[in-house]
Amino acid sequence: MKKIFLASACLLALTGAASAADLAARPYTKAPVAVASVYNWTGFYLGIVGGGAWEDSSVDPKVKGGFVGGTAGYNWQTGNVVFGIEADGSWADVSASAFGGLLNNKIDALGTVRGRIGYAVNNVLFYGTGGYAWIDNKLTFLGFSDTKFRSGWTVGAGVEAFFAPQWSVKGEYLYRSFSGETYFSNIGLPFNTGTDSFHTVQVGVNYHFGAPVVAKY
Known about the structure:
8-stranded antiparallel β-barrel, Porin, two-stranded antiparallel ribbon, mainly beta
């Protein structure tokens, strides 16, 4: 009986020693650390934009319609503040008719060159914007047409958000104002439009070049 007891004790001791040696031989591995994605807005981007425009006027008929085009810009980020410059140009079908269709007013194209400044909360950017605006405006009266390139200013605000590492979507409101222009002087029927102002609401999708996402441990 004593021999059996001693043999069992020796077997247990040998098993414990082997287990300890096995644990000592295994390398120590730390648990994986969670990785958080932090978005960096600095860099160049290209995108598409589209929306609707309507005239800010108390006189009917008001021109209204839609537009679609492209945009390009560059952002600089310091802390949570983002500065940028952006240009866009769009084909447009914004129009109205008066006097039983004798006079037609149509905007064939429009665009802006604007500064932007905003506050970034990781992948979401809230911003204000303002700068130069232009339209290509054609009036047609009794079969005679006159087209003018008109300059003005714009101001507005928007929000933009990354939905993938290099892709963002934005929504934007712009108020655009243009000084008066004289049409049909070439046929001896000068017509002055006065100041024209428009509201526009637009959405866009941008592709950001480089690597706007960095990993934060």
